[in-house]
Amino acid sequence: MTGSAATFKAAMIQMRSGLTPAANLDAAVKMIGEAKAAGADYVQTPEMTNIMEVKRERLFAAITEEDADASLAAFRELARKHGIVIHVGSLAIKVSPEKAANRSYLIDAKGELAARYDKIHMFDVDLANGESYRESRSYAPGESAVLADLPWGRIGLTICYDLRFPALYRALAEAGAIMLAIPSAFTKQTGEAHWNLLVRSRAIENGCFVMAAAQAGTHESGRETYGHSLIVDPWGRVLAEGGTEPGIVMAEIDPAAVAAARARVPSLQHGRRFEIVEPMAEPTHLHLVSDKE
Q1: Can you name the CATH fold of 8-289?
Q2: Catalytic, out of 47, 53, 135, 241
Q3: HSE on the CB side for 215, CA within 13 Å?
Q4: What is the pTM of this model?
Q5: Strand locations in 5-145 (E)
Q6: Which residue from 40, 194, 268, 277 has the least number of CB within 10 angstroms?
Q7: Where does 120-245 have alpha helices with state H?
Q8: Interstrand relation of 209-212 and 179-181 (parallel, antiparallel or unpaired)
Q9: Residues 6+ apart with CB under 8 A from 214
Q10: Which residue from 233, 272, 263 is spatially nearest to 7, judged by alpha carbons?
Q11: Dihedral, CA atoms, 256, 210, 244, 217, nearest 10 degrees?
């Protein structure tokens, strides 16, 4: 199914994950139960739901392969129990002795795995305040964009730093996504500067709902994340926003709003591709590439 007139209630679980996967699971399970009680049909947790650890040795001592991961098994059982879609924003999953995957799991209401997505863009940056991150040291990047069909329409799966690469979201929208998921653990510094603006931009330019559960606050590892989980409609309106503490952010989603927004500004139909011409003595020009090519 790629579209539906039925509305649904989405809940973003804002967490402050620590260094112990079992404790993080307990916190997530409790809030998912509260979201279900409040009427949620789709629940999303943030990036790195199971652990927030930047030190490689401690990370690999705490995580395991997918088949043995207790958090994933518990979330699948929880989805069956509650009869809701649980979108685990991401778990750190061991994929080799040297690398982990930053992997998102979409679990349907029967507890089956509807989709997996490995974060494509690695957060390898040095920030102005001295913070430095090298995700590629511990994580293997994903290679494929992923879509999945929910009862209410098609969703595109992404994670955190992917947010800064708009071509990924355009490809997902052009492939039928009416919702975009961006579970995250944005740093406080970059979040204050760009989070709200970037999330709303991805919604506006693609005419999609964006649902973004976030990590929030100062973690056991010492990392500080921005929080402010967001649900944004296809016109760029913020339907719900969290603060800086763990909690639940909810909003009613009407998939029909996607067609209405895209009819008002049909930018998905007007996009063109460009070919870059090699620079010469004169200024470089970008030439349109024919749709037939």
Answers
A1: Nitrilase/N-carbamoyl-D-aminoacid amidohydrolase (3.60.110)
A2: 47
A3: 29
A4: 0.91
A5: 8-14, 42-44, 85-94, 100-107, 113-118, 124-126, 132-134
A6: 277
A7: 166-174, 188-190, 196-206
A8: parallel
A9: 12, 14, 46, 47, 183, 184, 185, 186, 191, 195, 225, 226, 227, 228, 229, 230, 242
A10: 233
A11: 150
**What Å distances lie between residue 169 and 48, 52, 77, 147, 180, CA to CA?**
21, 26, 31, 11, 8
Q: Which residue has the tokens 């993080």?
A: 24
Q: Which of 36, 53, 160, 188 is catalytic?
A: 160
Distances from the Cα of 67 to the Cαs of 88, 93, 209, in angstroms? 16, 10, 32
- Point out the catalytic residue in the list 36, 94, 119, 188: 119
Active site residue 119: yes
Confidence band, pLDDT 50/70/90 cuts, at residue 285 = low
Domain ranges for the chain, please list them: 8-289
Q: Distance (Å, rounded) from C-alpha 97 to C-alpha 100?
A: 8
Structure tokens at 123: 């957060």
Rounded Cα distance between 15 and 28, Å, is 7
* Beta-sheet strands, E only, within 95-152: 100-107, 113-118, 124-126, 132-134, 146-150
Instruction: Give residue-wise pLDDT tens across range 17-76.
Output: 999 999 999 999 999 999 999 999 999 999 999 999 989 999 999 999 999 999 999 999
pLDDT digits (tens, 9 = 90+) for 82-124: 999 999 999 999 999 999 999 999 999 999 999 999 999 988 7
Q: Is 160 a catalytic residue?
A: yes
